[in-house]
Write a structure and sequence with these properties.
Layout: H1 2-28, H2 35-57, E1 67-73, H3 77-98, E2 101-109, E3 115-123, H4 127-131, E4 136-143, E5 152-163, E6 178-183, E7 199-204, E8 209-213, H5 219-250, E9 261-266, E10 272-275, E11 281-282, H6 285-289, H7 294-314
Parallel strand pairs: 4-9
Antiparallel strand pairs: 1-3, 1-5, 2-3, 4-5, 6-7, 7-8, 9-10, 10-11
Amino acid sequence: MASLKNPVDTWEQMDAQVADLIELEELAGEDASLSEEVSTQADELAGELDKLELQLLLNTPYDDHDAILAIHAGTGGVDAQDWAEMLSRMYLRWAEKRGFGVTILDWTTGDEAGIKSATIELRGPYAYGYIKAEAGTHRLVRLSPFDAAHRRHTAFALVEALPAVEEDDTVEIRDDDLRIDTFRASGAGGQHVNKTSSAVRITHLPTGIVTSCQDERSQLQNRESAMKILRARLVELKIREREAEQARIKGEPVVEGWGNRIRSYVLQPYTMVNDHRTDFSTGNVSGVLDGDLDPLIDAYLHQQLEESQQVANAD
């Protein structure tokens, strides 16, 4: 009910603000001191309208769902594992600024530093619709803190964005299709974490998809989290299959996984974040790494909006 009521309340509130602003503008004709206030409020309303226009674009299946974010260290050794942890921190900070709820479902630390992978659940309005803009390979260029000669290194990490679903009619998971293994959790933990076989690994035999969870203390909780990730991966597989078919019909190339480099973060010899899809760039690298992702995500959504309008005009 809340998911249906909130958008209506938002538009009704904006409608009332516009009516008030029209009345204020009429008064400004008689009182010049009100003109500046009218201009300020109009700019604020225009900004809010722009955000709502972008949100209207989030109308594909699952956009309004919670999200599961998976981050994997790639090429670059220890630097890549450190980079994966930096990205995880960036998304946690972004989620915090958005007011999203966060649960770490899985976290595998690196042998020397950083992490090998992390799986994070994000809960909030249109969490998947926004975070799906981050799916792809992220590239870091910097002077390596792990190189004694302090040379410049390049590291890669893969980000996957999955829609979180409790149940989905398009995805059927049969017990016979699952192989469930239990093992002892690795990494730092309390008296129960490393001494009992609480960690769970689930293999979906028809697709070969493997999910695991070891962050909870009980095997039952880890199994529920692993199943949640499996459902998300199967839904995402359906989405990719549909997009690939649409691209095939249109004659467009399909780039997935590691081949889809979406963004570069350069810390040396200059500082710049550049999104290769939208050509949006900013020199505020520290701000971006601290969770200021909205300008990058908004640029991506604006591009999607323009492309959808071009398709509509062509039809």
